[in-house]
């Protein structure tokens, strides 16, 4: 029997090779998903670890250790502390340090202290800039910055004594015997996980003998744990989680700080985002691979059915016929499945398991198909007719497929964020239903085309259409090709839209082509320096970015910022003009060691409110609240001490009015620093002969008694993404509520996205009461900003601490889990088209050309009969391309735009889809040509 099976394979080697290739492609396609996820997740983990802060990658245990009764440092923490941080894959570094001061200075303030430290293997983790590292007792090494601060050079002596804080004098005083050191090396720390949360700046490093030689009452001992190479990987995450759970179960230890939890949570989120889209692409490819294999096996079985009928006619036993029928397709499928699994898995065990599982399923399915083909009645096998009941079973299967597709769509939209059940099969089921409809329509349309072609005298077209109308194999092949094309179209659309979504989100997240982060600076300095660096407003814009508020130099907004398309109901230029309709008046600036105000009070209504001046020093120091005393009837001068020698901006005058409605205060401010003022609702301001007259009324508002220099609109124009508070007050730069008015509506704003408010920086700064110093200062630049602008910003007093670019943010987001997960679908789409093309070629040997031969004998020219099969195949490919494109569109509209990492409102770009479909058409046309060559012998 074995020899007979081998002889059959040798005699019909072409179908065997075709099955081998199909099985290899199908198994490799299935194994590709876990392999891709494995590689992707490892890359995501590496990116997350690299991007994490040092405190997120490391753990530290620390304890202040005192001298024991015999005068030695208690060694229990150094000896036993390692067990607190025994995480798998982490290395431990012990260090000890104490605060010291120059031995010749008995008392110093904090800025006069130094840190003396011993750290395990410090010399292996620094780069020598000058001199050498620690070798003998008394040696010390410092960084270049520390040497500058200590005013020492290579070879200088350094004498230090341990320090203790004296609470009575608020200074540090020397204690213990001094240590005499020599600076033998200037070093630079090597950027490595070794340093963890520690810093080498301001520290004098010595060896253990030198360290123990200092007289000190106590020392701070720490054990740092940092990950070794490969400590945080997909394979090690379960062990790390188990260790963290064990530590949590044992109870928190105040000595231990573990920052690893946040990093692992982000890794888990990135992995979940990468995995989410994969089932939607992997499941259809697996099903398509099985379908193509079964189709090829069924085609071969149909071709060989007459031969098996002859064998049965000669009296062969049924079991022998089954073995012969099963072995011929099963052996190539098994061999191809194993080879494809090994090639697709690429050494990933889970991927190999999936590939082998599909190969085993394919072998079993092939066996079932083969056994069914030789179990038909002998008369059916000899006459080469299909088994009875195929039509009603086909119709029933199609109805069930349609119902299952409806259930899958409903399940997808009601399953929330978790993909389970039939949800991953939803795209494939929708495409299958579309393919079944196309296959049902094909005979009807083909028959009409054939009739019309005969009337017009086009025999090739007529005969090709008749073949498509009459042969069931063509309809089954059409289903395969439609699903393959639809998978590629769906995948291309998903990847294109996901990339566009990530790019759009990157544009919003950054806000401009380049964004410079600036060290803490006053808002006025930020505005002045930016305007001076770019007087024309062509390249740079000052920005203060708070969580829900973006304050910008509005006249430059439309030129510098990246404005999302359709983000607001007004054009960017209109928004810029509406946010800053008038130029702000000059600042009200007071100078001197005291501030005073000449005020006449004409009405108090039995109140005695205290007068407070809110001042913002222009040198950036903390804002001042100068209490000037309680108001009294008549004309008086109200004064208070204020450090305003360098100038202070008058942010406002406040009266602490009660929250009860009714009482009114009227006063006149003589010789005011400005005549342009604003009052809260219910108040009034009028010009007086030598000043300004105010009337304010007590009420429920916190700012009922606030008088502020104006020079800006009464209500600050803002562009919000939602409704404003009912009272029209909005928290501003210093959280002080300011009156605002919406100049439009937006659904997306630069940096803020869908939640927040856009306001003019200059206007908002005028109403702030603080000093104006902000740690959220930024300068937004256009992508083509010349370096001279950046140099001018630095020359203007701004310190650039960091930079973000749109291109960098786009690249980062396109490496995110969701984007990488969507990218797998494109690989799956390519695999689907290759499977369809292979199926097209593999079924060439099942083509029945008997009818064409009969026509040739009846006188139809050879030039006509030769062109019929190629025309039919190309027509099938053309129908598959059209129907597959429509099926992809249906699947995308139904569920694709709701997939992770995809903006449902984002329209797909037509160019990538056209390229993908064009490539699919080329591959299928080449396969059609190969099919014709094989069918012709």
Automatic annotation (TrEMBL):
Record keyword Phosphoprotein present: no
Keyword Membrane among record annotations: yes
Keywords recorded for this protein, A-Z: Membrane, Transmembrane, Transmembrane helix
Bilayer-spanning residue ranges: 280-301, 322-345, 351-374, 395-413, 477-500, 824-847, 868-895, 907-930
Protein name: FtsX-like permease family protein
Source species: Dactylosporangium matsuzakiense
